[in-house]
Protein 1
Amino acid sequence: MKYHLLAILPGLTLAGSFPDDDGIAEDTPGIWASSAAVDRGPVDATVPDGATTSHGSPADAIGASDASDDPTVGVVSLGDGGAATLRLSVPVADGSGADLAVFENGFSSAFLELAHVEVSSDGIHFVRFPSISQTQTDTQIGTFAFNGIDPTDLHNLAGKYEAGIGTPFDLAELRGVDPRLDVSHVTHVRVIDVVGSIDPNLGTTDSLGNPINDPFKTNFATGGFDLDAVGAMQAAPTNLPAWTTHHFPTGGATGDEEDPDGDRIPNLLEYATAGDPVHPSGPPLQFAYSGPSPQLTWRKANNRTGVTLILQGSSNLVDWTDLASSTDSAATSGLILGVAVSETAQDSLVTASVTANYTFFRLKAER
């Protein structure tokens, strides 16, 4: 974050710390969400078991932005604390500048309904963009207050702009934050309504722990954040040369077996499992028991070509047997009796239950 020292002059109204001219026009993204699941919140957070919002449907958040300042057009209302989880049509990557844009149907720059944004590389583990609200927290912004929020007081909070202009998010801010997130292979985006009450027992806070003040209550069918669309600008690399250039633009330890971040996962395996080769990633192979049988789970980057992933088993750490494998985006297949494989189509998570007699397991990538 950049900090600025401002001289306070008599009669001068100072803007906040953040730009209000970095919005993304609705014709800019080339990639949009292809599916959405919505968990609506109540119309009134003070009555958590009361009525939930009812306007729109998950389908209204799919595809290109089409909202207007007419609240009845093209949006799904999330309600207080409600959330929408969207799968992008193709995995996307960190590029130059903003990478994602979240669109709401705001009709005034002074009446803004806000939301947190999180991203995931597997649809399971989500990482939140660090948000900041510098809006005053002494007086609650009311239901129909049209002068309560200055967009320059907001950072990484969706809903900062009016209909047709998306709030930008830069994946570079999350690089290396969580070993389970690869910012060159983001598959899902989650949008979570901010409960704008300054009551600490009800309201949402920013990444610094400050209350986020936005219109409250919004106790009607269209209450809370009205999600129009989520767009992205750059598709994730689909072949090894493009992936290598993306992560190593000036060269370096780019060999298949090299491990520049020291996480004991070689580059080719990082490529195949949506890992980050320059920041430590979590273990690509997870182990658990399902009854008496070991169960192995791993993620494969379904959009990437030129690589084969192989699950191997051993009883002595010397002799290894191929148990299951996949090449490129083809489904993973069990290779011997005693290995049952399942795979989620959307999230590219592979699970192998092994009843064959093996004690040790490893995941291998090869060209």
Protein 2
Amino acid sequence: MHTPDRVRQRLEDGTPQSYLKDMVYGGIDGTITTFAVVSGVVGAELAAGIVVILGLANLIADGFSMAVSNFLGTKAEQQFLQKVRVEEELEVKLIPDGEREEIRQIYAAKGFEGELLEQVVDVITSNEQVWIDTMLLEEHGLLLDGPEPKRAAWWTFVAFLLAGIVPVVPFIVNLLVDGGIAAPFLWSSIATAATFFGIGIYKARVVGGNTIKAGIETVTVGGMAAVLAYGVGWLLRGVADGL
């Protein structure tokens, strides 16, 4: 992996994009919001059919909303990067000496000095593309390569649907199968906790870290949301009957 040819190839291919954040974000939010709806309805002691209706409605609508929001947010980051690039291009043309001084001070702060520092400045500023890219990275802290907006949105939506459907499945089975499942909310809770735990483990395996700790952390966050939703539903359980 570290022969000259392999290193050169990796650098030419550019930075591989990861959509882990989009998948984890979508999966966790999908599970939390759908299970919160289920918990609220059950806490309010409403009919099981309402669980399915509200759960599926939330699944589609909120999943689409999250995907669109992720698309627009990721696209906005790209547009901001382009805006700053245009500004730097203009400054390089209008005040090149000032921009050279910025490069000089940036690399002086990294420990370069004397003739070596001047050589670094000369090399970087001899290529306008490299010069501007360096300013974007070092001065503004911007990444030159980012996730593709459509893919980010797609992964968010898919993860939201796949994870978010889990809390509703026991109630769907009860509507479709005679006899159904006894205590569907219990099984929904177990399946949801397992989903949270699985998402945490997947995240930990990709980024490194304690898988058990990551799983428990995710379950805890989701459980808190569910408890809040169930509590609100329980407190308002008589409201629907009075409407």
Protein 3
Amino acid sequence: MSDEKILNPIEDGDMDSLFTLPLSFIPFETPALGQARMIKNAQLRSVIELFQDVQTGSGQIEIADLPKMMNWPPEEVHPDHVIIRKLSMLHSYDVFSLRITLRRMGVPLTNAAALQLSPEKNQELTQYMTQFTRPLIAEIYGSENVQVERFEDVVALFRDPDIKRARQRLQQMADALGIEIMEVPTFLEDYGDIFLSLSYYKQCLDRLAPLLEVFINSMYDIRKNYQLRQDQNLLRSCDMIENTINELTAAITGRFENFERSTKAMWEDISADRFQKVKDLIQAYHITIGGVLCGLTVKMNAWVRLFPKPTTGGPVKRSEFIMSDIRQGLNNITKIEDSAPMMASLA
């Protein structure tokens, strides 16, 4: 029996995914669209997925083929097609990016509250959120022995059955932030959401890292192959792909480090204004980070589906896939990174 480790693609429920967009919360005139999903394929093109099944596979339609498929009148552009084309331009379908991009594009929603992570994903992110919950507790409660495991527990501390004690806690936070007591609930909601987004992206990168490592190791094997190392175009492509992946992951890691420094600086002299600066800083990079992570995840998912074990496929088949699906569209991820705003720390 082989002891080779089998890699699995990164999968999440629709609302937790970087690369899957359920269309049910968009008010389309065409009912069939509301039952479909938009996904990113291995070439990073957006396509409509009408069905997905283990046995039958994925039933995908190109955006340009929708008018004929949906029997839309040929003499004019259908309003649903206008919306679909806007959605196809998005770099990522994570909920934090979508909140920004859909608003900018003027895409209507049947339910704006749908742009939330699932309870299951929130639970998964508990360990990531702890580092952002701890300083909040320390600032407001000092040396008090307060047991907090989830961010929801922070909010629960202000719902103490002892009304006097709950109000005292609210006042403590309001005084520390320099805001009115009635503004505290809004602050808590914003605080939880912005650091939930950071936790989400950090988990995405952590899950992606082992897939990237295995992929890069596979390219080493290709370079050593006697037959393939004669192909200079292939070798140049492998170098380009590896350099691109390393630069992209380094850029994202650097941003996370900057966010952490800014968050630490915020707690050294906490105020509502300083929190707002950190919030704006992190939100400014939602689209960039989401887009880069989405692109890399889609590429690596395509790789591990085809080559789930180190010995699957062989060097020639792997090199063919690198030259087609992996290389194609990779420059689009670099463009997302290059279009990011200038990085700045909290002043």
